[in-house]
Input
Amino acid sequence: MNLLLFEEDEIDSRGRVRLRERRADHLRHVLRVRPNTTLRIGVVRGPTGTATVTRVADESVDLEVRLTGEPPPPPDIELILAVPRPKALPRVVQHAAALGTRRIDLVNAWRVEKAYFDSPRLDPDALRYQAWLGCEQGAITWVPEINVHRRLLPFLSQVLGPRLRDAAPPRRLLAHPEAVRFVEEVSTDSFSSVTVVAIGPEGGWIGEELESLVELGFVSVRLGRGLLRTEAAVTSLLAQVELCTRVSGRTRSRGCSSAPGSRIVMS
Amino acid sequence: MNLLLFEEDEIDSRGRVRLRERRADHLRHVLRVRPNTTLRIGVVRGPTGTATVTRVADESVDLEVRLTGEPPPPPDIELILAVPRPKALPRVVQHAAALGTRRIDLVNAWRVEKAYFDSPRLDPDALRYQAWLGCEQGAITWVPEINVHRRLLPFLSQVLGPRLRDAAPPRRLLAHPEAVRFVEEVSTDSFSSVTVVAIGPEGGWIGEELESLVELGFVSVRLGRGLLRTEAAVTSLLAQVELCTRVSGRTRSRGCSSAPGSRIVMS
Output
């Protein structure tokens, strides 16, 4: 736990928080806090700050909270992910949250085993818990919203399509082992806004799914040399997109306007 | 299994291989091969090709092998990694091998729990097995050599130091959450040769360890926005280095010589 997270409504009017259960247990038994221990804290989707432990009891830990500064900007990556095998799901969600992900849509696909949808790990509370753990690990305050969509094509046409039309045109990337281009070879002029990345099942998307994504403006990219399991594919692509977004942001902030079709190269 | 791997000495003089145990079981029960099924194959650190199944028996599968072309070049990334918690170790090794890693040195560090060294997962055969699985997943023929070093400073001075002096000067990166630079901000002129990356325990390297690595020429880099668990840190850094190496290689192949101190930017 690199950042102790809580909801805004857990803070009382005098800036105090009483923690119970998991977080209190972690503070007492893992971090071994005592009165006056100082902790890094964050409010979900809100500001960060510090807290001082005021009391450690058998069933609770009391804190006095000081929030400083503006909330960090929300992460600029959204993830559309074919439901992975249930054993890997908690890790995938944790890593994506720790890397900073604005939203995760878990979707069905032809090559997703139908039995995966019966897993209790897909329950909203279980998903939110894993996202929360990832944020505590990553010291990220943005707990991503996670939704599960049991039918892919209606999700694409009725949910994602309108969302993409409403927002500023986001970069859309589709992980595909047979793609000819790598992430950094895709035109980078809109890495400035949100990047939506779609990662299929380990067996790949089928043709019809690929076509539907391409119709929505998704561009296929290769992740690299190896063929990766879902958890490594998610982490690799998010890390590479984050790098491209940083490079794009630095180029803009230096006053070098990025021409449409520009690429990442070495200066 | 995206590539069926075997050792060169498993192929007889007539280009035939008889598989037993795990690989035969996988071919029969997961891939459900039959006579005439064609498979992608690779020889460890050798060429790739295809094989045709000639016989499926209760305890073995026979193949006829056709190797094509030159062996792929070895991966250009080496990993020095503080021994992670044993539960995560198999995944870390698999992901690193699947991404393409030339060599892995698992090292001790002040913040590595001593009990980790008692884990059977650190046995050479167990490590090689996980690396092999990763290569089968990644379709990578380079099974990385993995060594375990129970004392960090003697490893650095007596093993790594001489190795770095003997080879062409490799890029040396050290993952450090407090570093001021990101991977792509480090001078990229030697991403052309091998990159050695060092990733510490989740609690971080201590000062003396950092100093020893810096003395060997390691440059600290931040991975990104979040603080990552070992498996996500390894995957993120390897994926980002691979991207930088690709960009560096493309720049060279276009005839743009990279000046010392050059950086990755957008054109």
About this structure: Confidence is low (pLDDT under 50) at residues 256-260 of chain B. The helical segments of chain B are 21-30, 89-99, 124-138, 152-166, 207-215, 230-253.
